[in-house]
Amino acid sequence: MNTIPSFGVGTFRLTGQTVIDSVRNALDVGYRAIDTAQIYGNEAEVGQAIAESGVQRSELFVTTKIWTDNYARAKLIPSLRESLAKLRTDHVDLTLIHWPAPGNGVALPEYMGALAEAKALGLTRRIGISNFNIELTKQALAVVGKGEIATNQIELSPYLQNRTLTAFLEEQGIVVTSYMTLAYGKVLKDPVLAKIADKHRATVAQVALAWALQLGYAVIPSSTKRENLASNLLARDLKLDADDMAQIAALERNGREVSSKGLSPAWD
């Protein structure tokens, strides 16, 4: 039950008509997994795009994330029910705790317990975490049990490869979901990746996404352009060789793009 799609469309920083168009185009070109979050402020628009797409709900994999304001036991489930109403569905396929937020006054056992309860109620098919380090992942597992955490969604790109954390997650059978795989577009200008892309007659974005997929990670790139959404999907068919993978491995520079004060853990 904890399998998750390896390729989805992200909606971070997309709002209003922009996100409606992006999700509609993504569904039209073949995406079936959509990633949103309470804090993105676009769940209603994502729900509208899904409803108008004509794609059956049973064909889709919808993920949302609980925002820090809703971690208290009394708030988490009601907030998820609100998300479901906005998304026009009676369940999501995956619900994540968005950030560990160690200083926000709600202890990890409380919010992980409430998340497990949401799953027991059928509001979400799977549960997971996002931006958790090794120690906090261990604590989350201690609350919900081994095999219950479907994924840890973390920032990951050729410039931030997070090898210690990803090795631990693999050991635990927790899927790694890579967000920011293109490092806000920074990797698109990388000469090493450009050379690999030329060799394969691919785009640099396809190379970066194929790298993550070949390591066994799920990816959720976003785009406002239909042609880029379609092009990104082709990364699934791109096979990088051992030399390509070794060259990309050497690009590691701990290049973190996202760090939310008060929300982030001490990174591994």
Can you tell me about this structure?
The chain is an alpha/beta fold and 268 residues long. It has one domain (9-249): NADP-dependent oxidoreductase domain (TIM Barrel). It is 41% helix and 14% strand. The chain is built from ten helices and eight strands. α3 (73-87) links the parallel β3 and β4. α1 (16-29) runs parallel beside α2 (43-53), α3 crosses α4 (108-120) and α7 packs across α8 (204-214). The model has no long low-confidence stretch (mean pLDDT 97).
Number of DSSP E strands: 8
Average pLDDT reading:
97
Query: Which radius of gyration do the C-alpha atoms yield?
Result: 18 Å
CATH homolog superfamily: NADP-dependent oxidoreductase domain
Instruction: Bin the strand percentage.
Output: 5-15%
Provide the descriptors you would attach to this structure in a database record.
alpha/beta; TIM Barrel; 8-stranded parallel beta sheet; 10 helices; 41% helix
In short:
41% of the residues lie in helices and 14% in strands. With 268 residues, it is an alpha/beta fold.
Topology:
Layout: E1 9-10, H1 16-29, E2 33-35, H2 43-53, E3 61-66, H3 73-87, E4 92-97, H4 108-120, E5 124-130, H5 134-144, E6 149-155, H6 163-171, E7 175-179, H7 191-200, H8 204-214, E8 218-219, H9 226-233, H10 242-249
Parallel strand pairs: 1-2, 2-3, 3-4, 4-5, 5-6, 6-7, 7-8
